[in-house]
Amino acid sequence: MSNLETAPAELTCTNTEDQAGRARLLRPREVPLGGPRAMTVRRTLPQRQRSLIGAWCFVDHYGPDDVATTGGMRVPGHPHTGLQTVSWLFDGEVEHRDTLGTHALVRPGELNLMTAGSGIAHSEHSTADTRVLRGAQLWVALPERHRLTDPAFDSYAPPPLERDGTRVSVFLGSLLGRSSPVSTYTPLLGAEITLRPGRELTLEVDPTFEHGVLVDTGAVTVAGVRARAGELVCRDTGPDRLTLEAAPGEPARMLLLGGSPLGERIVMWWNFVGGDHEEIAAHRRRWQYEREHPGTGQARQYGRFPAQWTETLPAPELPHVRLKPRE
């Protein structure tokens, strides 16, 4: 998914918190994906209180969205660098096309992971059969030594584990004896968890990981902090157990995210992750040139545009000043 803000902030992201095991509630801000009738997403990461959870650097939650009213997801071709996009749906279907030649359908319970690396472009549109769209779009920052790796695309449908009123699907990393075969560039965890009303689940987790719980439905108490739909609870490294408790009344569904602290500063602006202002500016210039000259035969950072694309998104203007590092 693209960041469609017309004036995105340039963020220098770093985590320097050292309070072991502290949990914090992050409330979302609403961001429209397009015009006044467009689908709205709820963004919890990054924000002032927190930039990263492990290498997870961007968390959008959306839906349930009535596609007949908003038109659903309509994101034309746009670029990414220095990151991986993780698409996870709860309801609906999204068509993905990219400049590697990938044409895929994103469906509920199936991981779609796109590695941007040195540069890729893709489009995302909800399908004609979709009536309700609900899901999460997540980004993972690539570490400096892999930031310009070759682009790639992976998909995986994890088999759900059902036990005592709990349903868990592990799409990245390992949890409860289940492991995803999808490789990542830093240690990561990603899982969908559904709890029956009032159910409590205590998980053994890696104490060297930072963790975050994004609530999709219901209400959940995470490490003593209560969160509702669209909210994110993050917890620092330290404890080797994480307790999740669903509120009475309705099932609680959530995404559990985790990872080793990235240990690096990254600059994230629009759809790019880089090491500094100059790198981001170079990515932007190249994208603008390639979208204005889609048929040139010379080497292209973002690859060949699919024949089905009739439009691509222009990059916003860069800010005129540098923002200071956010500690």
Automatic annotation (TrEMBL):
Binds 1 Fe cation per subunit. The keyword Metal-binding applies. Keywords: Iron, Metal-binding. InterPro entries: Pirin, Pirin_C_dom, Pirin_N_dom, RmlC-like_jellyroll, RmlC_Cupin_sf. GO terms for molecular function: metal ion binding. It comes from the Bacteria. Its cofactor is Fe cation. Residues 191-289 form the Pirin C-terminal domain. Residues 40-140 form the Pirin N-terminal domain. Fe cation binds at H78, H80, H122, E124. Belongs to the pirin family. PANTHER family: PIRIN, PIRIN-RELATED. This is Pirin.
